[in-house]
Specification:
The complex is a heterodimer of chains A (104) and B (445). Chain A contains 3 helices and 5 strands, in the order E-E-E-H-H-E-E-H. Chain A is of the alpha+beta class and 104 residues long. Chain A has one domain: Gyrase A, domain 2 (2-Layer Sandwich), CATH 3.30.1360. Chain B has 2 domains: 270 residues, no CATH class; 116 residues, 2-Layer Sandwich (Alpha-Beta Plaits), CATH 3.30.70. Helices cover 30% and strands 28% of the residues of chain B. Chain B is built from 12 helices and 18 strands. The chains are: A alpha+beta (104), B alpha+beta (445). The interface between A and B is large, with 39 and 53 residues.
Chain lengths: 104, 445
């Protein structure tokens, strides 16, 4: 299944760092996200866009993960050559990630 | 228990004005807060001020004040804003002028300054965080340096009777925290309450982003009335407990999910959200739907504030030149690729001096590069070439080489566009607190 079928997301930017939230629609799916949406997988997903470390923070009280990605915005929002310098669209790209089906 | 209601009037400098008027007239609010200062806005405003000493404040200040001052005066709503940008004093004078035009008298307008730390930064030759090099290495590219002030000078302004508080660079949540500290008499080391008040600020500072704006995903996350999107209101009680809501008839919605997206927006470690006033911990936050468009927020904790203050440093980072052209119909992608190859070779032939170049096929790979699996071939693409140069003259040549594709490139290219601009970019630095001295002065209207 695709990540967007069980989670939603928003991107934020600070300098050359992008953060992406991954929020379970249903709290019951949070553990599934914890297990399958790892920092390593996110780093691999954004190969060629994110050039630095990816760190994952867990916020179980709201069923959410927060990924903080270094060297992700072409040198920083204020100087990037990118069409989307804030990387606002990155959240949508992450939602296209494949994750295993939930067990019933 | 005493409660106050704080409404948001803007979430960025170009934001819509009608929702601010709606919140003032129908929101039963005590405070109206406009957050209008993006990271680099102040550096650009500083440049404007150098050309004209009465310029350098928010371009929409006049329109916003005209729109909301009558309702604020009539209902006794206090207005707080960072629309002062690089020139809070000129913004305060302008606001006084507008009040006079509107026939409003007895308005106390406070102007908070002291965020401009360019002199301290250069005198002490402080290091830039990102590069580790002292600021002197930036030479004459340096434009501005502004420290993020905390809530204290705004609280002082309110204590002295301000009806309107106009600031330059202040931490965004502090604009919202200040009225809570003032109304409830919170102490400046009551970390838990300051953190809760900061959560109010963080959730409200992007205006429509918590009432259903920037959220809709048809079929998954539907939002009604986006063309009439309302701005948020926080109902805060003395103990720091609060609810996020909106004007009932305004478009949009407030749900735990809209709140979840906003609490993590631009946050790194959720257990350490650093502000000048407190280190807030959102890692155990909860959102509970209490009624239609009413969400109660819980679980926010605080710790001691950071020892240093952050300053954002503006500088000129060269120039960017761009050009675009569209191709459509069968073979559009192939013609787009050919066009990019031609421009690449042309830039080489003319000896363009660029430190970085980007070649995009908009509609195909401009946003997500190769992250997403290739889709069926699009029937329209727009090529885009962007490059970083050391001079404006050099930047202009990039768009020119794209435009000449009209008569020199592949068949049926259309809609050429070109631009070149100076780049004002931002870095940051950390300053000892004692080097930043906020000031408060009043303009009577």
């Amino acid at each position: 299944m695709k990540l967007y079928e069980c989670a939603h997301s928003r991107t934020g930017d600070k300098g050359d760092i992008s953060n992406i939230s991954v929020i379970a629609y249903d709290q019951k799916d949070y553990e599934h996200l914890v297990q399958h949406v790892t920092a390593e997988k996110v780093r691999a997903h954004f190969k060629g866009i994110v050039h630095g470390d990816v760190v994952r923070y867990e916020i179980p009280s709201i069923g959410a993960l927060n990924f903080v990605m270094q060297q992700a915005l072409g040198g920083g929002v204020t100087k990037s050559l990118a069409l989307d310098p804030h990387g606002k669209c990155l959240a949508s790209a992450l939602m296209a990630m494949d994750i295993p089906e939930k067990s019933a | 228990m005493k409660t106050i209601r704080i409404g948001t009037g803007a979430g960025y400098s170009g934001d819509r004005i009608e929702p601010a008027v709606e919140v003032a007239e129908k929101g039963n609010i005590d405070y109206l807060v406009f957050e209008c200062l993006a990271e680099r806005t102040i550096a650009i405003a500083q440049k404007a001020k150098l050309n004209n000493p009465e310029a350098g404040y928010d371009a929409l200040l006049t329109a916003r004040m005209r729109a909301v001052l009558p309702a604020c005066k009539q209902k006794g709503i206090k207005l707080i804003t960072n629309m002062g940008a690089a020139n809070p004093l000129a913004a305060a004078r302008k606001t006084a002028e507008i009040a006079a035009e509107l026939g409003i008298s007895g308005l106390k307008i406070a102007c908070v300054e002291g965020d401009d730390v360019l002199k301290v930064l250069t005198d002490k030759d402080i290091n830039i965080t990102e590069t580790g090099a002292p600021v002197s290495t930036m030479g004459d590219t340096l434009l501005s340096a502004n420290a993020y002030l905390g809530a204290a000078p705004l609280v002082e302004a309110l204590e002295k009777g301000a009806d309107v508080v106009i600031t330059g660079r202040v931490a965004d949540p502090a604009l919202f925290l200040a009225p809570q500290i003032f109304e409830f008499g919170w102490s400046f080391d009551d970390w838990d309450r300051l953190a809760k008040g900061t959560a109010v600020g963080h959730l409200l500072e992007c205006a429509g982003q918590i009432t259903g704006g920037y959220y809709a995903e048809p079929g998954f996350k539907d939002v009604a009335g986006l063309a009439r999107l309302g701005f948020p209101i926080a109902e805060v009680s003395e103990d720091g407990e609060f609810v996020i809501t909106k004007v009932a008839e305004a478009g949009g919605m407030v749900t735990p999910d809209t709140c979840k997206e906003q609490i993590l927006y631009e946050v790194h470690d959720p257990s350490s959200y650093l502000t000048p006033d407190v280190t807030a911990d959102f890692s155990q936050i909860t959102f509970t739907q209490e009624g239609t468009d009413r969400v109660r927020v819980g679980g926010v904790k605080g710790r001691e504030r950071p020892a240093t203050l952050k300053a954002s440093v503006g500088y000129v980072d060269g120039y960017i030149g761009e050009g675009e052209m569209s191709y459509a119909g069968p073979g559009a992608l192939a013609r787009g690729r050919l066009a990019l190859d031609i421009v690449k070779e042309r830039l080489d032939i003319i000896g363009l001096e660029a430190s970085e170049l980007k070649f995009d096929l908009i509609g195909y790979n401009a946003i997500h590069a190769d992250v997403l699996a290739p889709q069926p071939e699009p029937t329209e693409v727009r090529i885009r070439v962007a490059g970083r140069t050391a001079s404006m003259a050099e930047a202009v040549r990039i768009g020119n080489e794209v435009e000449t594709l009209y008569t020199n490139g592949p068949a049926s290219g259309g809609g050429a566009a070109k631009s070149a601009k100076q780049v004002v970019a931002m870095l940051s630095a950390l300053l000892p607190r004692e080097d930043v001295i906020p000031t408060v002065q009043f303009i009577e209207a």
